[in-house]
C-alpha cells in the first residue's frame, strides 16, 4: 500500500458518530439545515450549530464554510454545498471537486489531522454515485499527495454498497498512480 492509500479510509456508518477533528456536511446554499446528512448533523450538534450557521450568510455551490461541532464528537463541521445533478453538462464535476478541495483547505487551516466526508451530492442532489465517487477519490488523493495535513481522510458511507464503490475507485486510482 502506498503512503497516500494508507491515509485514505472507507467507513460504513453514521458520520455524526465519528470522533474526528472535522466532519463535512452536505449542506445547501442557505446553510440553514435540511434533510439527509445535513438534518442528521444539525440534530446531533444541537441548536447552537444553527445559530452559528445563521451568521455565515450562506455558502456558494462548490465552496465551504467552517463552524464548531457543538454537541457532536467532532470538533468542527465543514459545511459544503454540492451541485444538483442536471445531466453533467452544467459544470457539476468541477463544482463537486471544488467541494472536496475547499473543505480540505479549511481543515488544513485548522490543523485537522482527521477529516470525514459523506458522499456529497449523491442523495437529494441525485449525482450518479459511481461518477461522484471517482471525483471524491481523485480529488482527495491529489490533495493528500501535496499536503501533509489532514493526515487521514475518511469516506463515511451510509451503506455497504457505497463503501464498495469507494474501495473500487481507490483501487483503480492507486493502480493508475
Ligand atoms: N452519515 C453518513 N452519510 C449519510 C448520513 C449520515 N448520517 N445521512 C445520509 N447520508 P444527502 P446531497 C448519505 O441527500 O445529495 C439536504 O437536505 C446519503 O446516503 O444528505 O448533497 C441539504 O440541506 C447520501 O449518500 O446530500 C441539501 O438541501 C449522502 O449522504 C441537500 O440535502 C448525501 O445525501 C443536499 O443533497
From TrEMBL:
This is O-acetyl-ADP-ribose deacetylase (Regulator of RNase III), contains Macro domain. InterPro entries: Macro_dom, Macro_dom-like. Residues 1-174 form the Macro domain. It comes from Mesorhizobium muleiense. One of its GO terms (molecular function) is O-acetyl-ADP-ribose deacetylase activity. PROSITE patterns: MACRO.
